[in-house]
Write a structure and sequence with these properties.
about 325 residues, five-stranded mixed sheet, alpha+beta
Length: about 325
């Protein structure tokens, strides 16, 4: 999936800047090499998928790096790097993929009892427990196509301690990721934004480069989508205010209509029992201010306590 995203960036750059030569450098990160451990063991998605690539950009080994925005830590600063471009947002919603013989109605009627749903995302697990209170959530990692293959073949999922869990009856995955690898037809149900608010930045591909590399920044600006970039700024500001971490079920999604931006964000505990939400609207040209206001609203409602309880002991 990452390669498909990178190839799309290369196509856009060559179209926007005729004559430019773009070389795609494949980069295997810790998260790619270790498909078993929970991401928390590597410092979350940031440590597993982002940190090593960022070091290569800072060292001058790469001019720019592609990230799924939802994988980029929002509660820490990375001096020397800047998001040079945000691509137009893909559908941000989450979707349910089912094995043969199961329907969404089966899971709903049973409130999830007797069903195993696979995901590695704490946010998705928390929302799933709210929707299906008796469901069993199982740790499930791997590339999108690999996860679906395991689901179809009733394969067990290896656990960090050497054990196994499964097989899964269903998976919760990003709609855009499934479509990008040609598996959009496997979507059995698409969660509404009210049922499952997306992760901050979900559906946005970000291209990061060195802050002082002005030529690369100029070129990347040719493929930047201003609305997606503004949404990225607003949603990531919420993460900054909340000081969330990789084990914090935090969600956020913004939309822009004309000169106005609307932003909704939520914080849940991992069990899905505690849930708070905040929403505001404001000028679209001041996204960080809007994100800051929503983040402060969540803190006033008790978000800090929920996040603190979810921190690894």
């Amino acid at each position: 999936m990452a390669l498909a995203q990178t190839e799309e960036i290369a196509r856009r750059l060559t179209a926007a800047e005729p004559g430019i030569e773009v070389e795609i450098v494949k980069f295997e990160t810790t998260g790619d090499r270790d498909q078993t451990s929970k991401l928390l063991a590597h410092g979350g998605k940031g440590g597993a998928f982002v940190a090593e690539i960022r070091k290569a950009v800072i060292a001058g080994e790469l001019h720019a790096a592609m990230h799924s925005l939802k994988d980029m830590p929002g509660n820490e600063d990375t001096p020397g790097l800047v998001i040079g471009a945000a691509l137009s947002r893909d559908p941000p919603t989450d979707a349910l993929v089912l094995r043969a013989g199961i329907s969404i109605d089966d899971i709903r009627r049973s409130r999830g009892k007797g069903f195993k749903i696979g995901t590695n995302a704490v946010r998705r697990a928390a929302y799933a427990r709210r929707l299906f209170p008796q469901v069993e959530i199982i740790h499930y990692r791997g590339a999108a196509d690999t996860r679906v293959r395991k689901l179809d073949h009733l394969e067990m999922q290896r656990l960090p301690d050497g054990g196994e869990v499964g097989p899964a009856d269903a998976l919760i995955m990003a709609r855009s990721g499934l479509e990008r690898v040609g598996l959009g037809g496997r979507i059995a149900y698409e969660f509404s934004l009210r049922e499952m608010l997306p992760a901050v930045g979900q559906g946005i591909v970000a291209v990061e480069c060195a802050t002082r590399d002005w030529e690369t920044r100029r070129i990347l600006s040719r493929i930047d989508d201003p609305q997606a970039h503004a949404s990225a700024d607003a949603e990531r500001e919420v993460l900054w205010i909340l000081n969330g971490h990789c084990n914090s079920p935090i969600a956020g999604f913004s939309t822009i209509e004309g000169s106005q931006m609307s932003l909704t964000s939520s914080v849940l505990d991992e069990a899905g029992g505690l849930f708070i939400e905040a929403a505001r609207s404001g000028p679209a040209d001041r996204p960080r201010e809007l994100g800051r206001a929503v983040g402060l609203d969540l803190l006033a409602k008790g978000a800090a306590e929920i996040i603190e309880r979810s921190r690894p002991k």
